[in-house]
Amino acid sequence: MKNILISDPTLRDGNHAVSHKLNLKQIAIYCEAANYANVPIVEVGHGNGLGASSLQVGLSDVTDRQMLETAKKHLTKSKLGIHCIPGFATIKRDLANAIDIGVDVIRVASHCTEADITQRHLGYIRERGKEAYGVLMMSHMAPANLLLEEAQKMENYGAEGIIIMDSAGAYLPSDVTEKISTLVEGLDIPVGFHAHNNLGLAIANSITALESGAKILDGTARGFGAGAGNAQLEVLVAVLIKMGYKTGIDLYNILDASDIAEKEIMPSIPVIKSESIVSGLAGVFSGFSKHVKRISEEFKIDQRDIYFELGKRRVVAGQEDIIIEVAMEILKNKK
Amino acid sequence: MIKKRVAIIGSGNIGTDLLIKIQRSSYLECVLFIGRNLSSPGMAKAISLGIKVSDESIQAIIKDPDCCDIVFDATSAKDAIHHWEILEKLGKIVIDMTPAKLGGLCIPAVNMAESIILKNINMITCGGQASIPIAYLIGKLHKDIEYIEVVSSIASKSAGPATRLNLDEYIETTELGVKLFSNAKNAKAILNLNPAEPCIDMQTTIFAKLDNPKIDELKIEVDKMITSIKKYVPGYQLLVEPIYENGKIVVMIKVQGLGDYLPKYAGNLDIINCAAVAVAEQFAINNQS
Fold first, then answer.
1. Which helix (H) or strand (E) holds A232?
2. What is the complex's ipTM, to 2 decimals?
């Protein structure tokens, strides 16, 4: 029986779905449920991770410190994880405090071709004796050989595993096979996959990742996450049980946790909306969806036009400001 | 006009682009271009221009302290600290291109006069040079600003290794500059590297969270500011004029470079270097003796 490590970013990626407004009570309730279900890693924070509360991406009502302290209190068995993007989070202002609060697992993320910006952060985490992973975001934008080069840099910097994110929900299963097997072959550390469901393939792609050699998977309760959401955790766990994989997660308890999450933290359950399909086709960061919706309404333009234009410009996570510029350009061209 | 003699320490993108700009100056002359490796592309460029070069890092100036009046430090925040300890004793004027924030923060269009009397002038960051003039205007027109945020996106190819290692210092120094010049209580800086091909031009967005925005006055002030920045950074332009959206002022700037060492997309390189040259030239004009 093969072991698979599950990381659950319901309280991090899900924050995108509520414009980063998850409150401390919600964090406490879900942490308790996930902890009871033996989820190995529970990731908590602003959607773009540590230090990312901003006008650009969205302001949280609570601080990173409050979120992490609350989560830590309710996680007795599960490890507390965070997402951290250099360019948003600095070591001094953000990372040092998070480790002091008791974060166990830190995922240092960069756009898929920019791994060298993670060097100092990864080094610092290892110095502090915490678990460090490297994350390549928007990984559909780089070919497999380039992804491997970037992942190897992170491995050299001290990453103990590499997660590639399908941040736009743009992958087909054949893409997953190609990229995951290239990484598995070329790295000495475990490889993981983080799915988004824009094209309805989150579970299928996650399983394809396993079959290609991945050892780490991300999933969230009801798929609660940016845009069309992530791989639905309770479904993923059930499928893994049926396939004979071992996750350490109790089925009944994770089903209960997802019911609790639906009731307590989701204003609406993620579905694949029309604009999410377009977003996936255009290869646009899922975290943009709330902003695109708001700006398209303000400027009275079709969100689908915005997505395709953003895709054409190859914008990356963190470039939310460009949405306004694109909207104004579409408006100008209409006149 | 007697040209002031300058040395450039750091042979990466910033240092090499500075050299090319200084070659055009009527007030400055580069007498020494210093790096650590004679075979780096920047060194090769300097040699091809017939400039005296050294691969001995700060030792080159210690050995020949009288060679120059002004030193541009285009290394890294960490090295700049060590260099300043030496250069201060040697009585050099240092124009610091790194985010080490050892000296006074300088935005030529805002505080040129008070900067050129300093011994160590810090050019903040590329994103700071692009955003702070606008943040300054927002601060001038509005009282008690709670929060200003500046976001820059630059082409991946325009960010060399030192820039990438200095991301944390970039953020800290840009935030300090925004707060200092705008009087906002809190500030945040974000930097994105975008690998798209063809490369994107540098873009900077300034957000200010406030009620009762004075958009019409701001538009007039911003236009004036852009005219004065264009005098030293010709590619500085308004991309989205001041608007008020979702409880915040939004202004977007685009900076195209002159295409000296890196192509025109590298506005980030250009804006900080043009600003530094403008400061050095003003210093040269004021100190003709």
1. none
2. 0.91
